[in-house]
Amino acid sequence: MNIARDLYYFLIQLSWKKFFGLILFLFLLINIIFSNFYYFSPNSLNIQHPSWWDCFFFSVQTFSTIGYGVISPQSFAANIFVTFEAALGLISSAIITGIVFSKFSKPKARILFSKNILIQTINHKKVLSFRVGNHRANDLIDVEMILTGLIREVTPEGIEIARMKELKLERNRSPFFSLSWMIFHPLDDNSPLTKLIQNNEIADSLISISALLIGHDGTYSQTIYAKNMYEIGDFVFNRYFEDVIKPNKNNKNIVDYSKFNDLKPIN
Q1: Beta-bridge partner residues of 231
Q2: In the predicted model, what is the mean pLDDT of residues 210-232?
Q3: pTM for this one?
Q4: Using CB atoms within 10 A as the burial measure, which of 58, 65, 121, 195 is most buried?
Q5: Which phi and psi angles does 130 have, rounded to 5°?
């Protein structure tokens, strides 16, 4: 990504730790630059023989618009520096405030995907399955799951290409989603994976499977999404997920996420 061309996106996606680290670095850098202007400009401040630290702390006071009044600019050049620094401080404060608000208000789904994707038999039908959980336990409305497989194919011309193929689900939508949801893809004659998963083996042409969950978060009144990628090493045959939904002391169903990825063998 070209940071200079998409700085706003870069700052929004930056983690809080790195974001505040960047703000602190720029704050110190700007004040160091202006403190050097004041220090090397003759008779810039109203005190005799100011130290570099005097200039630095005066720069901090000017940039942050504190203005204690103990130290003030004296020369014309110093007043010019103060003008630019004060303007830069005001603009910086406005920009940082806007970015912080955007980062706080950005909806983020706490959706968990099971570590493994299973090949199992349900109701005498061979299916591919995994589960997702809403760790925040809020109501997500009109949720849709989209499952696609990345499959390597060879064209009649002998060209090897990778294609995304949609994998139909037994149920791809849910009116609301607050706890856990089992996802099933039937491995029937209509599935592009049926010929690639045979005798507890997976063909090399199956590269990966991607899962995308899209829903509406009523708290933020915005659309949220979560995605996960399953590689070949994540496939498990002839296992089932442990039950994770149980009632609490108030007789309300909750999800035991400590067992979310636990598997059990066929009885």
Answers
A1: 208
A2: 87
A3: 0.69
A4: 58
A5: -155, 175
∠ CA 217-218-222, rounded to 5°: 50
Residue 45 has phi, psi (to 5 degrees) of -115, 165
Cα-Cα-Cα-Cα dihedral of 55, 59, 62, 68, to 10°? -40
Where is pLDDT greater, at 34 or 102? 34
Cα gap 45→34, rounded to integer Å: 13
Contact 181, 114 (CB under 8 A): no
pLDDT at 4 over 60: no
Predicted confidence at residue 5, as pLDDT, reads 63
Query: In this model, does residue 117 exceed pLDDT 90?
Result: yes
| Helix 16-40 vs helix 76-105: crossing angle, to nearest 10 | 180
**Paired tokens of 125:** 């039908």
Confirm if 150 and 166 have CB atoms less than 8 A apart: no
Question: Got the DSSP string for 155-209?
Answer: -TTS-EEEEEEE---S--EEEEESSEEEEEEE-STT-TTGGGEETTEE-TTEEEE
Exposure string (b/e) for 121-148, b if CB count within 10 Å is 16 or more?
Answer: eeeeeebbbbbbbbeeeebbeebebebb
Taking alpha carbons only, the member of 145, 126, 123, 120 closest to residue 210 is 145
